[in-house]
TrEMBL record:
<feature type="compositionally biased region" description="Acidic residues">
    <location>
        <begin position="19"/>
        <end position="44"/>
    </location>
</feature>
<dbReference type="GO" id="GO:0005829">
    <property type="term" value="C:cytosol"/>
</dbReference>
<dbReference type="InterPro" id="IPR016024">
    <property type="entry name" value="ARM-type_fold"/>
</dbReference>
<feature type="compositionally biased region" description="Basic and acidic residues">
    <location>
        <begin position="1"/>
        <end position="13"/>
    </location>
</feature>
<dbReference type="InterPro" id="IPR003891">
    <property type="entry name" value="Initiation_fac_eIF4g_MI"/>
</dbReference>
<dbReference type="GO" id="GO:0005634">
    <property type="term" value="C:nucleus"/>
</dbReference>
<dbReference type="GO" id="GO:0045892">
    <property type="term" value="P:negative regulation of DNA-templated transcription"/>
</dbReference>
<feature type="domain" description="MI">
    <location>
        <begin position="72"/>
        <end position="193"/>
    </location>
</feature>
<dbReference type="Pfam" id="PF02847">
    <property type="entry name" value="MA3"/>
</dbReference>
<keyword id="KW-0963">Cytoplasm</keyword>
<keyword id="KW-0677">Repeat</keyword>
<dbReference type="InterPro" id="IPR039778">
    <property type="entry name" value="PDCD4"/>
</dbReference>
<protein>
    <recommendedName>
        <fullName>MI domain-containing protein</fullName>
    </recommendedName>
</protein>
<comment type="similarity">
    <text>Belongs to the PDCD4 family.</text>
</comment>
<feature type="compositionally biased region" description="Basic and acidic residues">
    <location>
        <begin position="45"/>
        <end position="62"/>
    </location>
</feature>
<feature type="region of interest" description="Disordered">
    <location>
        <begin position="1"/>
        <end position="62"/>
    </location>
</feature>
<keyword id="KW-0539">Nucleus</keyword>
Length: 264
């Protein structure tokens, strides 16, 4: 009987050992499976990151490919300004500018916006307000504003054929740009040298000075004017007080004489 009992105990011990061994093996297998799953997850994450990188590269490439042509920029800017003159939403303008892509298109946008005002003269103040905000928060840089105005100066003579009052109209947003320190009279003189013979350069100067005096006050006008600056807007053979005086009389701007000429 003792032998039988001992044999049974041995069997039980063997079975217990077998069960423990099986449990250990199952546990090891589970751990191996977990490790494999973790490795697979890590691998998937790595692959996903690579895919994301590739997708971003492709997106950048698409953006580069989608650089707008001048005609496309002009058309979008025209549509943008048409919309602005309805709702006057500056935030919408910022959104449109972002959609257009690289800031290199901004000078053409500024030029197109200036041209648009000749069809919407009652909204000159709104254009000035728009330019002020876009310049203040650097949505459009000072340099790009200047480039846009230069494009306009080069086209002013053509505009004068359709709009005889183009110079006096332009003076309103040129003067406003000066108040915002986008450029000054020295810049205007340098960029309109080619317009001296037709007197378009002098007209832009005189009407801008008059706008500053009327709208911003004589003190502001004086601050913007430097001694003898008027002579930089006329050809060398016309740089005399007599010529400037006669021109002021013709343009009915004699109120500017004390501000422009030291002796009169």
């Amino acid at each position: 009987e003792k032998k039988k009992k001992n044999a049974e105990l041995e069997k039980r011990n063997v079975f217990a050992l077998l069960e423990e061994t099986e449990e250990d093996e199952v546990e090891e297998e589970e751990q191996e499976e977990e490790q494999e799953e973790e490795q697979e997850e890590e691998q998937e994450k790595g692959e996903n990151k690579e895919k994301e990188k590739e997708a971003k590269k492709e997106e950048k490439m698409e953006k580069v490919e989608k650089v707008l042509s001048e005609d496309e920029v002009r058309k979008k800017a025209e549509d943008m300004m048409d919309e602005y003159y309805i709702c006057f939403e500056v935030e919408e303008i910022r959104f449109c500018l972002k959609e257009m892509g690289p800031s290199s298109c901004h000078p053409l946008v500024v030029f197109t916006a200036i041209l648009s005002i000749f069809e919407k003269l009652k909204h000159v103040d709104k254009l000035n307000s728009l330019f002020k905000e876009l310049h203040a928060d650097k949505t459009i840089s000072r340099e790009h504003f200047q480039q846009g105005f230069v494009m306009f100066f080069k086209n002013i003579e053509d505009l004068m054929m359709d709009y005889p009052r183009a110079s006096s109209i332009a003076a309103q947003f040129i003067g406003s740009a000066m108040v915002e320190n986008i450029f000054d009279f020295e810049f205007l003189a340098n960029e309109t040298k080619e317009l001296q013979l037709t007197r378009a350069s002098l007209d832009l100067f005189l009407f801008t000075a008059d706008w500053l005096r009327e709208e911003k006050g004589e003190e502001v006008c004086k601050e913007k004017l430097s001694d003898g600056v008027v002579m930089k807007f006329v050809a060398a053979d016309k740089r005399t007080n007599e010529f400037i005086t006669s021109y002021l009389e013709r343009k009915k701007l004699m109120n500017l004489k004390p501000l422009l000429l030291s002796e009169y």
